[in-house]
Amino acid sequence: MSFGEKLASIMQRPGQDPVAKDDVPFWLKYAGRGLGTVGSLLAIFLGAFKCIGIIFGYISCPISGMWQMVAGFLVMTVEAPCCCMFVDFVQNLSDWVEKKPYWSRAAVYCLLAIPPVLLCPDLNIIFGSGLIFTTGVIYGFMSLGKKAPLDQMRVSAGTNTQIPSTSMQSTLVENAQPMGFTNTPDSNV
To answer: What is the rounded distance in angstroms from the CA atom of residue 36 to the CA atom of residue 38?
Structure first.
């Protein structure tokens, strides 16, 4: 058993199919899950640190920190349910999200990361929410799927039979009328 296979067996979720069902590269899956796990831990820590700002009278920053902590906890429950074993519903939530397409997870992560930055554009908040946002971007890339092979892309690029015309009479719409001439409207119509 190679090192990569051992790593894959360790990172495999309980009840997960050993054969991948989509064409997403394995390194992109591990990047999304790893950044989601580490990013959510940092977001929780930095959000808690920002909540201390209420001592100094900053009202919007603790709200932003709490939002970031909740967002970090939600990302952690989906990406690393083993970190939240003390909560009963975490495994069910994680399994439910795994069945959804990647674009939905990307949209939720990106939308969760924006409000804390809008409330308190501080470096801690930008970094913590930025990690969650970057996780959403990685899942967005995963939703795009695998590129076509090089030969297929060359063939599809070469099949464009329309040659752009450089004459003055070419138009984008074939039935277009000249712009300088207008006819008087018919009274019979």
So the answer is: 6
* Tokens linked to 173: 């719409």
The ranges assigned to domains in the chain are 29-146
Q: Are 25 and 146 in contact (CB under 8 A)?
A: yes
Alpha carbons 152 and 156: distance in angstroms, whole number: 6
Q: Map tokens 């930055």 to a residue.
A: 117
**CA 26 remoteness from chain centre:** 17
Half-sphere exposure of 165 (CA within 13 A, CB side): 8
Give the separation between CA 151 and CA 100, rounded to whole angstroms: 32
Question: Are the C-beta atoms of 43 and 132 separated by less than 8 Å?
Answer: yes
Tokens of 167: 């004459």
pTM of the model: 0.67
How far apart CA 115 and CA 62 sit, in angstroms, is: 13
**pLDDT (tens digit per residue) in 42-51:** 999 998 888 8
Instruction: Give the DSSP H/E element, type plus range, for residue 89.
Output: none
